[in-house]
Amino acid sequence: MKVAGTHYRTIWVNEDGWSVDLIDQRWLPHELRVENVTSVEGIAAAIRDMWVRGAPLIGVTAAYGVALRMREDPSDAALDAVWEELHETRPTAINLRWALNEMRGLLRGLPENARASAAYKRAAEIADEDVELNRGIGRHGLAIIREIARTKKAGEPVNILTHCNAGWLATVDYGTATSPIYLASEEGVPVHVYVDETRPRNQGAHLTAWEMAGHGVPHTLIVDNAGGHLMQHGMVDMVIVGTDRTTSIGDVCNKIGTYLKALAAKDNGVPFYVALPSPTIDWTVRDGVKEIPIEERSGDEVSLVWGRDEDGRTRQVRISPEATPAGNPAFDVTPARLITGLITERGVAEASEKGLAKLFPEHAKS
Ligand code: MRU
């Protein structure tokens, strides 16, 4: 998407032809910093320390990590080792395993001297495919927004609530949950987005709000606990969120707090949609609550808050007693029964085994 007139993706190969440039998202919304990464260790740190984040982008970044390793050492042993090293960076987003499997599956079948160039080519394809998948999600989600817009008085916006950042920063471009929003906004369908701040890391306040402001989409930042109240008062027409892993029966794992939004939406009859590209579906898992590993991150993310002061200094401040321990599960699972529909690149699926199998028959269990 465009930032101050320049089109950016979140990740690309540097003009040297081999190292990887990526937006270091830790500095947003205050600064757009691009980092150059030259090693697998750098790629692993960028994923683990959340310079890049969001399920699709984590997968693409890992694919480039494999390419970097193949350039140094294209052996089978190096391929297996880089798979392990990158796979353990973050446990919940399934796109990481998907991308690593794509890369290893392809490269295993090639002679060693062909692996480095094939790895760069496949990583670039995965990045391009992500952009296309998100465009597809956008088109199908736009139809839903248009439908809701028809029920509103002339000029009244469709009020959409979103949680975390499933925007272009979480993907290579366009985003998943934001793709229909951007298309609606471009088409002139009036939309207004309630942006959950998304504690503890504030991806909503830092990233989604920055995206919405940058692209001229009317939006309001709200605290995570406001959603239920707004829904009770008819102020939310629909919820759209992203996902880090969706199971074969339609359970959705996403940023912590998503489940509570879905409960509030159900109680208030507000449609709750999840936008996802097919690499986010884990066909090996059924019961999301029991089977998806939930990342537990440092309690410091809860006790300490990052911000920038009036003098332009980025600072961290403590908001709880030093002696108070903090727990920090990063994701939760929303059961399929609370979900109105799964917006995929192939269309909108019912959140159920049957619904997903209908759209993705190649994965259906016979
Ligand atoms: O911890 P993060 O910032 O990687 O979590 C991101 C999310 O939960 C997103 O909603 C999800 O990855 C979907 S991104 C298209």
Number of strands: 18
Element-level helix/strand string: EEEEEHHHHHEHEHEHEEEHEEHHEEEEEH
Number of helices: 12
What percentage of the residues does DSSP assign to strands (E)?
15-25%
Round the mean pLDDT to the nearest integer and report it.
98
Q: Strands of the biggest beta sheet: in what spatial order?
A: 8-7-6-9-12-17-18
Q: Tell me which ligands are bound.
A: 5-S-methyl-1-O-phosphono-5-thio-D-ribulose
Main pleated-sheet profile: 7 strands, mixed
| Cα-based radius of gyration, to the nearest Å | 20 Å
Helix content: 25-40%
User: What would you call the shape?
Assistant: globular
Helix/strand structural class: alpha/beta
pLDDT < 50 stretches: none
Measured between the Cα atoms of the first and last residue, the distance is 41 Å
Keywords: Amino-acid biosynthesis, Isomerase, Methionine biosynthesis
Site (Transition state stabilizer): 164
Protein name: Methylthioribose-1-phosphate isomerase
Binding site for substrate: 53-55, 90, 203, 254-255
List its traits:
alpha/beta; globular; 4-stranded mixed beta sheet; 19% strand; 7-stranded mixed beta sheet; 366 residues; binds 5-S-methyl-1-O-phosphono-5-thio-D-ribulose
Task: Please provide a brief summary of the model.
This protein is an alpha/beta fold and 366 residues long.
Your description of this structure?
The chain is α/β, with parallel strands linked by helices and 366 residues long. It is 40% helix and 19% strand. The strands form 5 sheets. It has a 7-stranded mixed sheet with strand order 8-7-6-9-12-17-18, with helices on both faces. It has a 4-stranded mixed sheet with strand order 13-10-11-16, covered by helices on one side. Helix 4 packs antiparallel against helix 5. The chain starts with a strand and ends in a 7-residue tail after the last helix. The protein binds 5-S-methyl-1-O-phosphono-5-thio-D-ribulose. 5-S-methyl-1-O-phosphono-5-thio-D-ribulose binds next to helix 2 and strand 11.
